[in-house]
Amino acid sequence: MTFEPRQLMRHVEKLCDLSPRLTGTPSEAAAADYTAAALERVGAEVTRQVFPITRWECRDVAVEVRRGHQWHSLRALPIGHSPSTRGVVEGDMVVVEHLTADNPALRACADKIAVVLGMWGEDAANLDSLARAKPAAAVFLDDRLPSYEPVQDSLPMGWVDKLRVPAVTIPYFEGWDLVRQPGRLRVRVDCLVEKGESQNVIARLVGSHPGAGGILLSAHHDSVAIGRAADDDATGVACVLELARALASVPRRRDVWAVTFGCEEHLSVGAEAFVREEAHQAHRLATVINFDSCGSLFGRTRALVTGEPALQRWVHRQIARLGEQVVVEADVSPYSDHFFFTAAGVPAVWFYRTNFVGGRWYHHQALDCEEVVGPEALASVARTGFALARELVRSERLPYPRRIPDAQLERIRHLERTMATWPPR
Ligand SMILES: [Zn+2]
What is the pTM of this model? Predict the structure, then answer.
């Protein structure tokens, strides 16, 4: 099966034109409408799942530094769901080199502006430490992405109440200028935070043996609050739409679910809602194949396998047969939609592409536009994902045990406890 790079890019461009597709906004809903229409054209039965979220929107943000008698503005973005400053707050800056309770710098932050190197990691207790320090505002430098652009960072939905300090990010390298030449800072953030809703688009192609576990293909149609979000994740959505089209015309023993999720950017809230919905019987699925940020022009395709070593070996064999360049790895990751399926005991393969050790240099910045996506690279991911899906949908018995090894499950449970919106099962 060939996948036309131009056809994949058409989906990417259409979704980019709706951007940013921030969760709970009309743009996210328009992106959902787009995927629903495309999946209906494939001939699938399409439904929507609406679920509650806390939505946010930036009305105003500004950071200024005083140099002599002049105030200079820095480019800034609010952290998603940031409390507002109610006007401007002004104070001396305190450099906080790491955000943990034992850092003495936090004790000097009251009513000042904390300039924090790095984020809060996977531990919400670090946000509590920031709140206890009572700074007037916090200016974060995302040290995962040294850039001249500000990064749009957001929190897991379950943590949004823990961000009790008005918080923004500025470009990493502007942070260097601040430390070289410290000055008084002014911060203004005005965010709307309110109850809202998001939705999943769920298409099902019924197989000849609906009792056999289905194969679920996934990507997310929402995005962060800035830019065109081409790679994250219009590329994955393009793969799901085109794979659904290709699979509609092949003999299928198993059901194929093609799903585009909403609200992934706050820790896969849509995927979690899907897995928690009784009627979906997600725990009975055979395998999930997830596509998220898989189009980097120059980079390395990775297949992250959560499941038995036999699944990893099987994926490896399929890819070797295709002659595609893919790194196959075994691990657990909470950072895309497959995570809550693995928490329900369903093995998963996540296709993504990286272009440096830290991930993708344009990640969650205005830089993530069509120019960073390679049509051929994206077509290669689509071919690879399709080859796996086609083998599985026609199989009577899965070529690997359908389970998550205990060591991986233990790590999944820990992440679920600390990061998920709902309690672990
Ligand atoms: Zn993503």
Answer: 0.97
